[in-house]
Design goal:
Number of strands: 4
Number of domains: 1
Distance between the termini: 7 Å
Shape: globular
Number of helices: 3
Radius of gyration: 13 Å
Helix content: 25-40%
Order of helices and strands: EHEEHHE
Strand content: 25-35%
């Protein structure tokens, strides 16, 4: 299994647009082959900080997800809605 954690901060005034795009992305991604879980959450201490937790069957499933139209659409849509690039970490579990 592959777990992907990402974190970004919404720019001033962009939180609602970022959340809307994230909700659509989560709905679409949950239907991707190999997607075991896909969720966004806001930090309790700072609601402008948005975290995404993705769990994939394997790297091939994540790679296929990255090639989907809904992923490209999301990445284009959120440009300018976050401060800098998201911080991402990748974790592989041993089955």
């Amino acid at each position: 299994m592959l777990i992907v954690l990402s974190r970004a901060r919404a720019t001033e005034g962009a939180r609602d647009r970022l959340i809307s795009a994230a909700m659509e992305m989560a709905r679409e991604s949950r239907g991707d082959s190999g997607c075991l879980s896909y969720a966004f959450a806001a930090a309790l201490e700072d609601p402008s900080e948005i975290t995404c937790t993705e769990i994939w069957r394997d790297r091939a499933a994540l790679d296929a997800h990255m090639a989907h139209d809904h992923t490209s659409k999301f990445l284009s849509c959120v440009q300018g809605l976050t401060e800098g690039e998201p911080v991402m970490t990748f974790h592989t579990t041993i089955d």
